[in-house]
Amino acid sequence: MFIGHFGPAFLAKALLPDLPLGWSMLAGSLNDFIFCVFVLLGIENLKPASQLPGVYQISCTYPYTHSIPGFFAVSLLWTALSTIRGFRTPIIMAQSLIVLSHFFLEIPVHRADIGLTQQGPFIGWGWFDSAAVTFLLDNACLLFGLYLYAQKTSAFPSASPSGATNSQASGWLNSLRNTVNRYKAHVSDLRTFWLVLNVANVLFYYAPGLHTSASIAIVSGVQILMLSAYGAFLDSNRMYKRVDQSKRDDQVARSNWVG
Fold this sequence. Notes:
Layout: H1 7-15, H2 21-28, H3 30-41, E1 45-48, E2 58-61, H4 68-84, H5 89-109, E3 114-115, E4 122-123, H6 131-152, E5 153-155, H7 171-187, H8 190-206, H9 213-236, E6 238-240, H10 245-255
Antiparallel strand pairs: 1-2, 3-4, 5-6
Helix pairs in contact: 1-2, 1-6, 2-5, 2-9, 3-9, 4-5, 6-8, 8-9
């Protein structure tokens, strides 16, 4: 599973308006990101396995990041980092649960390589063997959270910066502003977001042109970071429905995953 791991972040965001979405999306895929780092460091391993059916034709050995002790260790690490960042207790608890959700969402799709301990036994139902089932489950998990998020939020209306009106702005500046606003409107549209995630999903599962462990790990890790950053951008351009104007600026600041 790949984009389905972002679903719990959107679910949590729908329940907790000041939860940082980008930070939470990274939490949902944190074990995979650490796995990519561990592959590059030689601590865990992956290798292409084209003989496997379906999608994710990769053989993985990851006793640290994809075992129950590993999931709890990463959850504690993210809880500590969230505490250091000064988040409220409900948000810190949500971060911990989002990390742990990774374990439960992996079981249906993985091919019996998720460890109950670092030495096994290993579980997994193997739905990766069916591309259709894998993509359907990925999107079901994502769209459930995304739907709830869409019900609670709406895009910010376009506004001229610093109180300037269109008549006050010079022609080229007004044109530039309109272009930027159109770009932001398209990029922060939830349909565009869903489409971009699905393109990334295909690249993640099939990794075209990637034939080495290092290249797969680097591309996968970069994808996780970029999509999490995209989620932060998306959320910074949306607001909760029926919130007081006095609360909107604070909400936008809290939604920024880097501060």
